[in-house]
Amino acid sequence: MATSVLTLALLSLYFVFSPASAADRITANSSIADGQTLVSAGGVFELGFFTPPTSTARFLGIWYKDIAPLTVVWVANRQAPIIGTTASLVINSTGSLVLADRSGHMFWSPAPSNVTSSTPVAQLLDSGNFLIVDANGTGAVLWQSFDHPSDTLLPGMKLGWELTTGLDRYLTTWASPADPSPGDYRFEIDIRGVPEGFIWYNGTLPVYRNGPWNGLRFSGEPEMEPDNGNFLFEFVANSTDVYYTFLVDGGGGGDVISRFVLNQSTLQRYVWLQQQQAWNLYWSLPRDQCDRYAECGAYGVCDASASPMCGCPTGFTPASPREWALRDGSAGCARTTRLNCTGDGFLALPGVKLPDVTNATADASVSLDQCRQRCLANCSCLAYSASSIKGGESGCIIWTSPLIDIRQFESGGQNLFIRLAASDLPSNGDNSKKKNTALAVVLSLLGLLLFGLGGFFIWTKFFRNKGRFQSTRRLTSFDSSNPLYPVQDRNTEEESSQSNGLVDVTLFDMATIALSTDNFATSAKLGEGGFGAVYKGELGGGQTVAVKRLSKYSTQGLDEFKNEVMLIAKLQHVNLVRLLGCCVHGEERILVYEYMENKSLDTFIFGTYVDQTCRSSTRIMDLQIGSL
Question: What is the widest separation between alpha-carbon atoms in the chain?
């Protein structure tokens, strides 16, 4: 009671004797009454009493001095509006800064500091920071408005935590344009797991998440260009502090005026355009539907440029196909194959906002490859990524809970490696695994090549020149370009092996024969007899040949045909057409002769010796094809 009476007495004296002030500070012998202001030394900011649009209440706040309309960046008595103009800001006898009216009713006072001073001074700086310092030579900061933001973050302010004291600096919206009391939305740095920023509704429901800091920017804000000449962004995370801050003009101040504002559920950065005398919206978040927290559910990937926006990565399918078909992806995606720990690999998702890291762990001291090995060794690990992309990918973030709030960017973003069962891995999904198996693949191919070369060598050395088939079993096709040798009878094998008069006959493949005769075209037919038709053909080297296609209704066996071919090939006579080769393909039996111009083929085929000795065995002596 005595203290209240003393405070009331002092306030009465201040109201009577304190002159209107345009200075930048308040001492124990001065005050700021309604209608008076403090102005920072450089004339950038002003502190005083104001009334919001459409309101009648009075509030103590800080605004830009020479910018119209009034742009308030900080409010002291957000939850205690003043009715009337009788309030004043004073430093009382105990050294506390107090906002009270003449009746002694206190509307606001800074939280007590652990450091006290007998000579406190309250001062407004050109940065917009209003602070209380010890004027007794130490200059220690006892309290500052930058530690207690309203809805605006100014250059040099810290958004985040002072871990040693538990101080949490966060932004809260105005309840309405006419009411600066705290609204429903708050933007703060969440230090659980890996630090990242959240917009919360009513303090519990996440609305937007900007992702973890990656050394250059927040993972979900690729438009944050580092050191772009106008802004310098910085994020500090150590044992004593976790906070985000920014500077303008590289920290030099200059002509750039910018503020970062939480406007209901939206984060907005504004810059002041001097020529237009207006605020310009530099960027705004959330930027689209994909920025809504968990828009596509667990493991879902949101792509604002796609339709539908929600998709499942390889190895996953919609958890609720019906809702998915109705463009509701909130149920997310489910794995196609369960993980079994051993044999798993990773699917690379490039250019994404990293998932929620509230339950993730980070280690900046390891390489990305070491991070992969850690994840493989931990059966609970579901994904990993680099914790920093500054100067290349390094560090490690590991997720052990479902991956939530992933979005795809057209440019920017980071690489995320999702664990998949081996059966779900695409051929190009896990580059690391491919590297590990590349040597084995190369060695396998080399072994096959050596085996093939060895087999070819053995065949060439021991079988190619033996002059006979190694098996008498009936074949359906023996298309090749190898010489043909007769089938030996077991009873005459010894006799045949002693013969040196074997003749090679070329085997033509069916494709070559069909191509040379234009697929046995009628226009290429020279004639036809009881045992088949004869066609004019041209081989690949330009050689013209006569092709006899024997009837498919022949009952002659393959071995008999081979032996008869060899018999014809041995017949060398000036009056006989030379046999060039043959083809056997399925039921096809084909003979290829040299082609003679301006002669009658029967002149050569039906020579006296052949006509008398070989007509029945060759089955080709009945064809008269007219003048060639």
Answer: 151
Closest by CA to 72, choosing from 216, 221, 259, is 259
Closest by Cα among 357, 396, 356 to 376? 396
Per the document, the length of the chain is 628
DSSP H stretches of helix in 68-164: none
3-class secondary structure per residue, 385-421 = ECCECCCCCECEEEECCCCECEEECCCCCEEEEEEEC
Taking the C-alpha atoms of residue 35 and residue 49, their distance in angstroms, rounded to an integer, is: 7
Residue ranges of the chain with pLDDT lower than 50?
Answer: 1-21, 250, 429-436, 463-502, 600-628
Whole-angstrom distance, CA of residue 221 vs CA of residue 151: 20
Q: Which of 623, 589, 625, 620 is nearest to 508 (CA)?
A: 589
Q: Give residue for tokens 């040949």.
A: 545
Contact between 143 and 132 under an 8 Å Cβ cutoff? The reply is yes
Neighbours of 468 (CB within 10 A): 15
Sign of torsion over alpha carbons 395, 400, 401, 404: positive
CB atoms within 10 A of CB 304: 16
pLDDT at 115: 63
Predicted local distance difference test score (pLDDT) of residue 309: 95
Beta strands in 336-386 (DSSP E): 345-353, 361-363, 383-385
Scanning the structure block, which residue is given the tokens 């190694």? 470
Buried b (16+ CB within 10 A) or exposed e, 37-59: bbbbeeebbbbbbbebeeeebbb
Which residues lie below 8 Å from residue 309, measured CB to CB, with a gap of 6+? 289, 290, 295, 296, 302, 303, 327, 329
User: Rounded CA gap, 62 and 259, in Å?
Assistant: 13
Beta carbons within 8 Å of 600's beta carbon, 6+ residues apart:
624, 625, 626, 627, 628
Q: Check the CA dihedral 332-337-342-345 and report its sign.
A: negative
Return all residues near 606 (Cβ < 8 A) that are at least 6 apart: 621
Q: What is the model's pTM? A: 0.66
